[in-house]
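User: I'm new to structure prediction. If I give you an amino acid sequence, what do you actually give back? Let's try with this one:
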Amino acid sequence: MKVLVTGGAGYLGSITAKALEQAGHTPVILDSLLVGPRQYAEGRIFYEGDIADRALLRRIVEENPEIEATIHMAARIVVPESVELPYEYYRDNVAKSLELFDELQQLGKPRILFSSTASLYALTPEFAVRETDPVDPSSPYARTKRMMEMCLEDIAQATSLRAIILRYFNPIGADPDLETGYHLKDATHVVPLLAQAALGYRDSFTITGTDLPTRDGTGLRDYIHAWDLAKAHVRAVERFDAVIEAEGAPYAYLNIGGGDGVTVKELIAAVERVVGKPVPVTEAPSRPGDAVGAYANADKAAALLDWRTEASLDEAIASALAWGEKRKSVLGYE
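Assistant: Good question. You get back a string of structure tokens that encode the predicted 3D arrangement of the chain. For your 334 residues, that looks like this:
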């Protein structure tokens, strides 16, 4: 099948496109290249443009009538930036997504797979969260994702649109062939920052927040190999109608995570274990909008998608480090 992938020239979008190809499907990429590198779309059906450009969406569907679903991954995703630039985040993540959803529904392409985030869950004493647990998004970024979840619920109730909402935990690593990976010049995600410190590209790694209510005072996350995450999208696209039918509603929520909680200090120890040398660190206060953390109960994804993570934390870290060493040759910068 053909699958429209918005943000398909981004980090996770490009890896998901590759997973679709390996499963025998054809990704159709729509990306503004606001942050995604052009080379991540090379060799694929690619349209450069905005997700809210209805004329472009109509042309994409006219030229690719076999599109059976849309994976909507295009979004601004940097939490501290969302605190500084809330208008841009609400405009791009919410307002433009509404235009996309409405146009796709009118074009008879109602299957939407939406990239959401686990950072909107409310803090729980156990840290493990299910899809039905309370939400309390702590940043403009997380609130844009929650808003779009609610929009999808309402639109699906009123129209033919159907939505599977994937709440991502923390993807790390690159595609298996190290052709694409994390690409932002100024890394904001923890593992690329750790990789740069471990490889000597930056002086040290900064632990932001050391007095949080976790077992060692640092933030807790559920890390998942980006390739495992990509394969979850493939399963969700292939089983889309069955998932919606099983849910008994026009939308469904699925946690996509590994099911383990790892603190920042534990992650640093894992990186040191993989690299075989210490990572220089400094400590700083938490950043505005940072969540304390959670990890996934992913039983629902296992049941409905027959999907589970396969890569270990060390394998995911090794992938991220290998990409950190290669990405200059791919992108032209470290």
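You can read the tokens as a compact description of the fold. Here is one thing that stands out. The first strand starts at residue 2 and ends at 6.
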